[in-house]
Amino acid sequence: MNIARWGLIGATASVLLFGGLVLGRTPSRDYHLLKKYPLGGGDGKTEYWDYITFDDSSRRLYLSHGTEVKVVNADTGEVVGAIPGFQRNHGIALVKELDKGFVSDGDAAEVVVFDMRSLKVTSNIKAGKDADCIIYDPSSKLVFVMNGGTKDAMAIDPVSEKVIATVPMGGRPEYAVADGRGMIYDNIQDKNEVAALDTHSLTIQARWPIAPAERAASLTMDPQHRRLFIGGRNKVFAIMDADTGKVIQTFPIGDGVDANVYEPETGLIFAATREGILHIFHEDTPDKFILEESVKTEPGARNMALDRKTHEVYLDTADLGPPPDPTPQQPNPNAPAIPGTFRLLVYGR
């Protein structure tokens, strides 16, 4: 795929829509806590959570919760079901035209397939060690799982549920995002770069440094204006041109960023951090961004999904105990979560 060609398309779109972004600006208007739902569950021994996936058609949230995926009604907070039996799951990808969901289980090194209607597990697919981020690419109609331990990406045919290719990523892959045109961008966390993966040729087309951001853990995209939004664990948020790899602008952010989402209707970008701060930026133009506000949430609320209908943001967390003493191997240990205190937070205007 020709990256330069996409650059021409993106530049043309930016020129055509430049005025609309400025004139149509919608301020965030003080996001605040609207609802809090206790969820409980889990194995009762540990408390762990990761990615949140929102299905706007069914109004369901799929929450990674360690040994289970908890399924929640987004409008009421009611737990409508759970998918149990994991060792430690991470991401959930939905292929709605097939009524199938795909869950990465990092500790089991596999992808678990479930029926979206019954929530029953239907099959297991062998993946790489520490299978983490998992997404569906609508252009190639493939599911991609990023394996942190084996430093590769696996392409899965969701119809046959077979692995059709394994692509070396040149480092530890983390959060990934698809542009809908046949390209997946992925944070290569240990190399401080973004890799562009062509989902049709299944080859890496480009690698770009993310400096001054480092150890990127979160990623989202404005596909229309070809902008990547990268959250670095060194407390730097970077905005990159998806066609040239140029870092356009950076902002300081809180500690432990783990999720970014972009809302095209408002031009807002959200970044959630373990520190308990939700940063909200605005895209004034494709080359100018501002910080609208930084909202105090709760410690540990680092994972997130967005409802584009209500403009509400979903985060999850749990009560945290005192952090353990530092060690040479872990100089900055995280505070442990208290089992049974898992909850959903809803923020809006």
Could you walk me through the main structural features you see in this protein, from its secondary elements to its overall organization?
This protein is mainly beta and 349 residues long. The chain has a domain of 124 residues: Methylamine Dehydrogenase, Chain H (7 Propeller), CATH 2.130.10.10. 6% of the residues lie in helices and 51% in strands. It has a four-stranded antiparallel beta sheet, with no helix packed on it. A four-stranded antiparallel beta sheet has the order 2-3-4-5, with no helix packed on it. Strands 6-7-8-9 form a four-stranded antiparallel beta sheet, with no helix packed on it. The N terminus is likely disordered.
| Helix share bin | under 10%
CATH domain class of the domain at 86-209: Mainly Beta
Low-confidence stretches: 1-24
Tell me the total number of β-strands: 28
Task: Profile the largest sheet.
Answer: 4 strands, antiparallel
The CATH architecture name of the domain at 86-209 reads 7 Propeller
CATH topology of the domain at 86-209: Methylamine Dehydrogenase, Chain H
Neighbour order of strands in the largest sheet: 1-28-27-26
C-alpha end-to-end distance: 41 Å
CATH fourth-tier homologous superfamily of the domain at 86-209? YVTN repeat-like/Quinoprotein amine dehydrogenase
How much strand?
A: over 45%
Shape: globular
Rounded Rg: 19 Å
Total number of helical segments?
1
